[in-house]
Amino acid sequence: MAEAYIVDALRSPTGKRKGGLSHVHAIDLGAHVLKALVERNVIPGEEYDDVIFGCVDTIGSQAGDIARTAWLAAGLAMNVPGTTVDRQCGSSQQALHFAAQAVMSGTQDVVAVGGVQTMTQIPISSAMLAGQPLGFPDPFSGSKGWKARFGDQPVNQFYAAQRIADHWKLSRHDMEVFALESHRRALAAIAAGHFEREIVALEGVTQDETPRVSTLEKMASLEPVDPTYPSITAAVSSQTCDASAALLVVSEAALKRYKLTPRARVHHISVLADDPIWHLTAPIPATRAALKKAGMGINDIDVVEINEAFASVVMAWQKELDYDPARMNPLGGAIALGHPLGATGARLMTTLLHELERTGGRYGLQTMCEGGGQANVTIIERL
Q1: How distant, in Å, are the alpha carbons of 38, 170, 285 from that of 246?
Q2: Of the candidates 307, 313, 275, 315, which has an alpha carbon nearest to the alpha carbon of residue 155?
Q3: Is residue 5 helix, strand or coil?
Q4: Active site residues
Q5: Which of 64, 92, 97, 236 could form a disulfide with 175 if both were Cys (CB 3.0 to 4.6 A apart)?
Q6: Quick one: which H or E segment has residue 250?
Q7: Could you count the other beta carbons within 10 Å of the beta carbon of residue 297?
Q8: 163-197 burial, b if ≥16 CB within 10 A, otherwise e?
Q9: 88 to each of 33, 91, 281, 371, how far by Cα in Å?
Q10: CA distance 185 to 219
Q11: Where do the catalytic residues lie (predicted)?
């Protein structure tokens, strides 16, 4: 089978809610990374085969196939098409998978992939809120088929995060210690300049705005998001933010044609689903299945980037896979760096690639929980 290669990966800073990027139109936020991607590489813009972008809640400024509109707003070639993917939190990771599959099939040679989300302007699940409390949208109400299969069991991320914490015996204090370490790692990475190669500054924002100095005492003082879920607070949850990211995926023929140097090879791609009531546990079976299919063990992986939707999600994954915590989200995760929904998958892959290059690691694995109880897994080999 033909191989798919990653030639470049970059991202905007993560702008905190109502922060330095909050006024940037979603199309322009996506255009920013696409323009930088094309300018940094020798492939003429008109010779890209496709643009595949992840985005969730495609309403308002994020509507109208933002992959296509962002490309055009960047001033790039009119002939290049674009398509927008929604696999919930894994949207831009799935965009990378679609690009890799296109290249591996031989139907495309040059694909720009990535994602964008402006959560200040369009809060999470805006398309489904319809007057419901933020964070608890219910698209299942009224579905006879869903009710027949799952009854009245709650389907929301906070319920699932608490259920995971209870099942894996993770105390609120345990999760706060984990969250504090996420911020510590992110702040240390910023201070050391580890993100500088991957970030393309925008609107005067040159580094991630989301990491912050905190203490266990401050975290312990926070009220739960809902009394029903006593261990789940803002401190142990991912941050909403505004961000975009993009990668360049090409075939071997394109490498030769444009005399490109590949930075990584896509070694494995897969997606798996789990119980939607558990909602956030799919990265565990998905990782096991991916490693088995790739003929690898977890200790063959040098760096893991797993989305910190909630501390309990990542901590449960670590317990089940028995992976070295020092090599898991080594520069901090979404608790510190933010979770810009449709852009997160591309942001994680961008950071994963740069961290493999910085440390000399060979294999990196990326996974994340996604709405509907799903999880993508990507394994790359640094070249």
Answers
A1: 10, 35, 28
A2: 275
A3: strand
A4: 89, 339, 369
A5: 236
A6: strand 241-250
A7: 9
A8: bbbeebebebebbbebbbbbbebbbebbeeebbee
A9: 21, 5, 15, 5
A10: 17
A11: 89, 339, 369
Q: What is the pTM of this model?
A: 0.95
Beta bridge partners of 257: none
HSE-CB for 203 with a 13 A CA cutoff: 19
Instruction: Please give the domain boundaries of the chain with CATH numbers for all domains.
Output: 4-125+240-258 (3.40.47.10), 267-382 (3.40.47.10)
The 10s digit of each residue's pLDDT in 336-346 is 999 999 999 99
Instruction: Say how far apart CA 137 and CA 125 lie, in whole Å.
Output: 7
DSSP string, 150-195: HTT----HHHHHHHHHHHTT--HHHHHHHHHHHHHHHHHHHHHTTT
User: What is the distance between the terminal CA atoms of the chain, rounded to a whole angstrom?
Assistant: 18
> Taking residues 305-316, what's their average pLDDT?
98
**Percent helix, strand and coil across the chain, each to the nearest 5:** 40, 20, 40
Residue with tokens 């909602």: 279
Return the structure tokens found at 82.
């674009």
Of 184, 359, 159, which Cα lies nearest the Cα of 279? 159
H or E element, residue 381: strand 374-382
